[in-house]
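Batch queue: ligand-bound targets. Current item pairs a single chain with zinc ion. No template structures supplied; prediction is de novo from sequence plus SMILES. Inputs echoed for audit trail.
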Amino acid sequence: MRLSIASYLLLIISVCFFVQFELVWLEEQKIPVSEETDEPARQARALYELYENIWKDLVYFPIPESTENEEATVSYENSWLFERTYGGSYGHEGTDLMANINKSGYYPVVSISDGVVEKIGWLEKGGWRIGIRSIHNVYFYYAHLDSYAEEFEPGDVIKAGQLLGYMGDTGYGKEEGTRGKFDVHLHLGIYIRTEQLPELAVNPYWFLRYLEQNKLSYSY
Ligand SMILES: [Zn+2]
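Prediction returned. Tokens below.
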């Protein structure tokens, strides 16, 4: 069977129409980018920026190096969300910097960042603690202190590297001044404020690792 030129043309035109129709149909099937599908991406970006802010605030490692005693070191591990059991089971939201010399009041604790004193005083779990709100709205929480360097009050301006107090073993007791329930260490917590949560705990371990290169030297 032989087809005339006109038949060929008709066939080609038909195919073109069909392809065109398919393309239009496919275009219609595309899911439009709705605000709902875009929202998680926006939230993720916002969270990324908040994390970035932490890096901007970091200045000094919280425990200065001793110029007097090479035994006066601290050690810490990535204990993020390890189980803690005081007053019920929960995950550890922080990093514990353990004192090699297990002596309360021996190691100085300095502020990691510039900021303002937000919280001060006794907490059942945290003992003598101080909370510093940094310029970029990050909350640095220093717990279990033996004592404070001075009589801080909420609103006091703090410079990075400023002496806050001394490492201790206070806490784990309703009674103010409870001590000796665990080895001497500094519990460091870092919290950011997100759109959803007033306090989101982040793992301080990697920030501390980064700060190892920025240690002050103190005579102790
Ligand atoms: Zn801890």
